[in-house]
Amino acid sequence: MCGIVGFIGKKRQAAPIILDGLSKLEYRGYDSAGMAVFDGDSINVVKAAGRLDLLVSLTHGGETTKGLAGIGHTRWATHGQPTDINAHPHLNGKGTIAVVHNGIIENYMALRKMLVGRGYEFKSETDTEVIPQLLDLYYKGDPLEAIQKVLHRVEGSYSLGIIFADHPNELYAARKSSPLICAKTEEGAFIASDVPALLKYTRKVYYIGEEEIVRLSADDIAFFDVDALPVEKEEVEIKWDAEAAEKGGYEFFMIKEIYEEPRTVRDTISPRIRDGKVVIEELGLSDEEIAEVSRIHIVACGSAYHAGVTGKYVFEGMARIGVDVDIASEFRYRKPIIGEKDLVIVISQSGETADTLEALRVSHQCGATVLAIVNVVGSSIAREADKVMYTWAGPEISVATTKAYSAQLVSLYLLAIKFALCRKQITEEQAAGYINDLKKLPEQIELLLGGKERLQRFANRYIAATDVFFIGRGIDYAISLEGSLKLKEISYVHSEAYAAGELKHGTISLIEEGTLVVAVATQKELYAKTVSNIVEVKARGAFVLAVTNVGNTDIETNADYVIYIPETNSYFANSLAIIPLQLFGYYVSLGKGFDVDHPRNLAKSVTVE
Ligand code: G6P
Prior knowledge:
The protein is an alpha/beta fold. It has 3 domains: 3-245, Glutamine Phosphoribosylpyrophosphate, subunit 1, domain 1, CATH 3.60.20.10; 248-449, Glucose-6-phosphate isomerase like protein, domain 1 (Rossmann fold, 3-Layer(aba) Sandwich); 451-594, Rossmann fold (3-Layer(aba) Sandwich), CATH 3.40.50. The strands form 5 sheets. It has an 8-stranded antiparallel sheet with strand order 3-2-4-1-10-9-11-15. Strands 5-6-7-8-12-13-14 form a 7-stranded antiparallel sheet, with helices on one face. Strands 19-18-20-21-22 form a 5-stranded parallel sheet, sandwiched between helices. A hairpin with a 6-residue loop joins strand 7 and strand 8. The site of 6-O-phosphono-alpha-D-glucopyranose has 16 residues, from helix 9.
């Protein structure tokens, strides 16, 4: 979603650093960009709707916007259209205070009304503009005091970067429920809403806490709570390296990240298998405590939710424990019933998804223990959860998730094996068999990646498709949900996933001559049933692409095109079947000439409700 970068330097110009940092956050999704730089005299603002490139050319790469302190922003429109005027930064009327903001100020209407009543004039339609105006109202020479007063007035979520013209050697930041980090280096101090913006300069960062205020100068950073009392903070070292967030010769991040899946899966599994046993230290629960968990609630958004749907089938089948799986934006408002001995598992790549974070907080209010499966170390969800199981996918840049989703899946498998053993639903020998299958996954994924040209040829035939249906039963249904999302989100082809048995209750009426149906049939005990559904859609003229296990060659009698996945146990089939479906989505988007990594209207990390 929106991105923030700020810099205050000793000698280095702020603008080129801000533009470079913003370019590293482009993947989050945005529709306008801007920056404000203090040149020693006044604050100069340049902003424009459209891509960051436009801002780069308007400022000649930052050359024409001189100054050692500045703040920049990429905006993903929420309140008001993506126009030049609505782009950040926003200023007070005198142009002496500039603000960039991520999040939503929920009481902005009331604040705006109050400010208008006091003679303040507004230029934009944004919620953000109340902040510089409120700062103006409260500012009596002490920025910290003014920010503190503003934070007491605003409701909602925010990460803020602020500069004051009469405090040229300082840059301010604050946050609540929206990510923001800061760092100091030899050359100056930085703020950023996400790690990739800073990787080039440092790997040591500070995570700004909830409702904290930060004062940065070229050689110091000071932290304060919302009452302006000093806060002590320790630097955190980021393990990701700068190259991991670069394309490294690939045309798009998405294909690079698909290629990183074998490594991601290996890195997520291997530290948790010791002497042939699953060891998940982060869980912090004894075997007896695990055995006593009475129900699991999995809560997440988007693809992470789809991983959760698979998790439900795996936990229930393997560990025989009841699992509810919920979309976080629904869970948080539906008054969930969570028992004392229940475990809530939230899943999130970014660790910043607003609804998932709020679902975590709701779970805490219900007294539940929350385990988070998260990719970004130190993210809000990681910090607020009781236990964290990190997926070791490294930075994921493409908006459409691939490797992080795969890492989430194997994390759930590891947990399910552990739960199944502790609940005595499987023997040590069966667990060893599952572990063996888990260890084979990276190589099997590599094998599937070897078939990418065939997928590309097939995708090129379907570039003009307007409707695609994905069908499957059980875990194959969960795979279908994710396969369908991958296709639609990046190629803008309407696609739907259906539980194969449900298709005939309505949607089958949409099947006509040539409609593409992707049938996933990896679950042995459901195979014959899904084949029957293939026959049904074939009878209505569908063209069927089937994804099934190697050896099921009889499917060729009914399906028009078949992709075989290597042999694994039914529980882990998702990890293999999803690879051709990710590639299919990628190649359709590529074939249509779209910007695969930045699909329209989408954001990588959805930090607003
Ligand atoms: C956005 C992304 C999806 C992601 C979802 C949840 O919609 O585009 O790829 O699955 O958010 O994000 P999270 O960071 O919580 O996994």
